[in-house]
Design goal:
By secondary structure, this protein is an alpha/beta fold. It folds into three domains: 233 residues, FAD/NAD(P)-binding domain (3-Layer(bba) Sandwich), CATH 3.50.50.60; 121 residues, FAD/NAD(P)-binding domain, CATH 3.50.50; 110 residues, no CATH class. The protein contains eleven helices and 23 strands.
């Protein structure tokens, strides 16, 4: 890599970014573009983060279409490439498709690694590899990160450390079982019974990988598999092959709604005692292997001892709309850890911040927020004429990838005063909850029936009004009909 061997020696920095996965890379790129002084530290020896290790069976769950109906590297193409990071330079955009062999619509782990490596090289990002964050200390003017290379002082720290620490649900005896991360080679399970605790992404990923090998697969968790919900998440149908096998009456797969009461070691392997959750009764299973696919937690080290609040059984930091800890000022998170800011969760829809296609936009928004709020860096705003407002907002609703990927989570905001200013992409929750000048925010949203529609939020004289515009079967939101609808919602603020 054409990078400085050991950049960022211990010392004082405006911001320290921890991690060289996609969240750390995108944050660093966005900070640098805005002129924010920062250092990037990584315990790894090259870019990639968790994608150097997971998923176990090497195929991602977010898709990329190399031959989309838009030129690679354009903003519109981002709709079709859910794995590449953002950049202004044409040769640094849409990199993952360059490495895909088109065997699948989703890249393999090595293809994703290659894309991230190329991004770091082509953008010239500097990263201090082999530098492990070990502890944290609070000081009056900021934070001190104690690392394997020395101490780093900063006004703000951005932890892009992923949700990578194996987590097992609190089940008696579960410590005897292997975690998803400890899954062996498929041939290791040839002709044997495998019991998988968990029925989400990692559970179905492992089950799919072992389906040709194991004599029997059992997937169990208390909640039923909601295929409608899974279809709205970036999980691929291929992960549901064991569910299909079960539904067709195949003998090789069992999918059961049951709480795991306990896991017991036996001479032959394991005995798993379960209690039905959607049916009355108990079931006892015998298996040679138990794999725990109950997820991960964020490696927070000593941050909780300094008062960092968490959610989801302590697995994820609790965050503000701008991804700052709700209890530790100056501590921010990027990458898939940014899911700790859940957004409004309208219609029960969570953010897409667990995946690259969502959190790459979060990182860009966070960088601008840090630049302006901590360093007084002015980010130039576009000015609009009144007659431009309606067509501009409709064009964003029709084609802005930020709004389509992060439905009901990110919004395009305009403010109205002596002039009309484009404030850029902003967390919708922040816009809704905060006071401010007269303004309008537009977002793409989706209801429980998976109907996609435009939403408009108008703040006038301190009062907020929300209005859903009609859905359209092909999402053609730029017609005369929508111009009239939006102009009506905006009232006297602008002319149509």
């Amino acid at each position: 890599m054409a990078l400085v061997d050991k950049p960022f020696p211990p010392g004082d920095y405006g911001v320290v970014v921890v991690g060289s996965g996609p969240g750390g890379l995108q944050t660093s790129y966005s900070l640098r573009a805005l002129g924010v002084p920062h250092a990037v530290l990584s315990a790894d020896d090259e870019p990639g983060g968790m994608f150097r290790r997971f998923p176990v069976f090497e195929r991602l769950i977010t898709w990329t279409k190399p031959d989309a109906p838009f030129e690679r590297g354009t903003r519109e193409y981002e709709w079709y490439d859910h794995n590449s990071l953002l950049a202004a330079e044409p040769d640094s955009r849409a990199l993952v498709p360059e490495f895909m062999d088109r065997t699948f619509s989703v890249p393999s782990r090595p293809e994703m690694e290659a894309g991230l490596r190329a991004y770091a090289e082509r953008t010239g990002l500097e990263i201090r590899y082999g530098c492990r964050w070990e502890a944290t200390r609070r000081e009056d003017d900021g934070l001190v990160l104690i690392t394997s290379d020395g101490e780093y002082r900063c006004r703000a720290a951005v932890f892009a450390v992923g949700v990578t620490e194996p987590w097992k649900a609190p089940i008696p005896g579960v410590e005897e079982a292997a975690h998803y991360t400890e899954t062996g080679e498929p041939s290791q399970y040839r002709g044997q019974r495998v019991f998988i605790i968990g029925k989400r992404n990692s559970g179905f990923e492992v089950a799919t990988g072992l389906l040709p090998w194991a004599s029997q697969l059992v997937l169990a968790s208390p909640r039923p598999v909601d295929t409608a919900v899974l279809g709205r998440l970036p999980v691929r149908v291929r992960y549901l092959e064991p569910l299909d096998e079960y539904a067709r009456g195949g003998a090789g797969a069992v999918v059961v709604d049951a709480a795991i009461e306990r896991v017991e070691r036996t001479e032959a392997g394991f005995r798993i005692v379960t209690r039905g959750t959607t049916w009355p009764g108990d079931l006892v299973f015998e298996a040679e292997h138990v794999l725990v696919a109950t997820g991960f937690r964020t490696p927070l080290l000593d941050l909780p001892t300094h008062g960092l609040a968490t959610v989801a059984d302590g697995r994820i930091p609790a965050l503000t709309p701008f991804w700052e800890s709700v209890s530790m000022p100056g501590v921010y998170f990027a990458g898939n850890t940014s899911q700790g800011s859940p957004g409004l969760r309208k219609q029960g829809l969570a953010s897409n911040s667990t995946s690259v296609n969502g959190f790459r936009y979060n990182a860009a928004v966070l960088a601008q927020h840090l630049a302006e709020s901590l360093f007084g860096i002015t980010v130039e705003r576009r000015r609009l004429e009144p007659a431009e407002v309606v067509p501009y907002l409709l064009s964003e609703l029709a084609r802005a990838p930020e709004l389509w990927v992060q439905k009901g989570y990110l919004a395009r905001v305009l403010t109205f005063g002596d002039e009309i200013r484009d404030e850029g992409i902003v967390p919708l929750e922040h816009f809704v909850d905060e006071a401010g000048p007269d303004a309008v925010a537009v977002a793409v949203e989706m209801d429980t029936g998976a109907t996609i529609y435009p939403a408009v939020y108008v703040r006038s004289s301190g009062r907020l009004v929300e209005r859903a515009l009609p859905a359209h079967p092909t999402h053609a939101f730029e017609s005369k009909k929508y111009r009239r609808e939006l102009a009506s919602v905006l009232g006297g603020l602008v002319q149509a």
